[in-house]
Amino acid sequence: MRWGMVVDLGKCMRCHGCVVACRVEHFLPLGMTWPRLIAWEKPVEELTTFPVRCNHCQEAPCVKVCITGASQQREDGIVWVDQDKCVGCRYCLIACPYQNRTFLSKDKDTGYFPGYELTEFEKAGKRSYPHTVGTTEKCNFCMERIDDGISKGLSPGIDRDATPACVNACPSRALIFGDLDDPESEIKRLINSNMGFQLHPEYDTDPSTYYFDKGRKGV
Amino acid sequence: MALRQWMVTHEWMVKPTPQTEWIERRGILVWIAEVFTSLGAGLYLVSLYFNNWWGMLAGYLIIMCLKLPPHILYFGKPLRFWRTLIPFTDSWKTSWFTRGINFTVYFGTIVFFQLVIGYLAINVYPGTAWETWDIVLKVFGGIFAFLVGIYSGFIMSYCRSVPFWNTAMLPLILIIAGVTDGLALMLAIGLVDTSVDIAAVEFGSRILLIVNIIFIAAYVWNATYISKTAKYSAMLLLKGKLAPVFWIGVITCGIISPLVISVSSYFSGDASTPLLITAIGFHTIGAIALKYILLKAGIHNPILPVKTSS
Fold first, then answer.
1. Which of B89, B91, B162, B228 to mutate to test the interface with A (most CBs of A within 10 A)?
2. Which value does ipTM take for this structure?
């Protein structure tokens, strides 16, 4: 089993719904964003966007360079950071060819309204999803939702309660989640039938996030 | 086409992006640590060659007091430093950073005993078994000093995300530069310790400065055709915003000036103290500048293809 995601660039409406859903799901500090929408100006006066997040590479350089073993890879392919082990050396930030990691410094966690009391949302976040200043963070494919869902007999990518928040939030179903090792899964079928591609395959990192683009137009 | 504000949030990810983590803000500590790594490891190795106890002590103190603390202070969670040590981690199997930190700790431990035993062997029990122990520990100390001097090159060269660093030449450049730095510091010790053979140190310095300039030239030249991003880094050094530091700091101060002084002393027969001090000062500026430009010119490949005009 290897969890992966495919992004249908033709369907992405640039609504930033995935970015917001992730922020809410993980109570992200204001200075940190796990999934991002990259603006990309094509040579022919056209603007397009790429939703990017941690690619959960099979051969993840961030896991290999981690000096304490805080960056780990599970058997299902998910790469995650144990914040209790991370010393904040930032080697993973530099080694990640996709620049999809963020170091949580104090200035990124000043509160949603600096100088004022924390919002109720922030207070809830401090209790249920604490983020440790001085460590590195990144997308974890909502592994808590996946684990919890599987324990209830649900199928990630099919049942909403076992599927990453960004995938659930996408209004145009541009994000599809599933098992890359299952030849019958929707994600595998979409990758095969649409010539799905990975970013920077030349690095031999074998990302678990694929993209395809069927006749996408500009903004 | 003018981009709307909300669409350019992450524009930096589609252009060659300088790494800032290890050179800006708190990252300056990494730069300082790299400079002292080179000076300390180089000085210890050179002192071993010339069998100079005071040089070994100075190299040891540089590594333990000026290199290790900035490295640890740079961490976001410095008190978790112990997590990087064997047996608390098995990351040494894949991570050069873990290996490097452990090399430094082993160097610190072994060389501490070597210095104590070496001092006793020279001053208290000459001609006894203490000397044998001193030699054994010197061998291990030398091996770990070499590893401490070279590991940061491997840390950087492992990063395929930064094409300018991603070359096997980088560790060689750093270790050669380190030994050259060590020779310069040995000259400084020679100013107060008459047992140092200044002529021999200068001879070694001349050779290594020439090797250094050949390696740096080959490294930068090589970068111009590795990839577009590596070429961008190389051009930053040659004629971009890092050019003053590269040409004045690394090439003129770090290599040409000490080489000219060294060659002139060869022909004049003896180097005057002011000239030696000038050469040492220039060389140290070069060591600081070299680490700066290497870290500063580390540019990430963009995630997506770059528009030609951007």
1. B91
2. 0.91
Beta strands A3-8 and A36-42 are unpaired
| Nearest-neighbour CA in chain B from A134: distance (Å) | 4
Find residues 151-210 of chain B whose CB sits inside 8 Å of chain A. 155, 158-162
> Cα dist. B226→B125, B135, B232 in Å?
57, 44, 10
**DSSP-derived 3-state class of residue B299:** strand
For B162-184, write each residue's pLDDT tens digit: 999 999 999 999 999 999 999 99
Interface residue B112 vs chain A (CB under 8 A): no
Count other Cβ atoms within 10 Å, centred on residue B41.
Answer: 32
Go through the domains of chain B in sequence order and give each one's CATH number: 17-300 (1.20.1630.10)
- Does A3-212 carry CATH code 3.90.1140.10? no
Annotated domain spans of chain A: 3-212
pLDDT category, A44, cuts 50, 70, 90?
low
Separation in Å, CA of B2 to nearest CA in chain A: 9
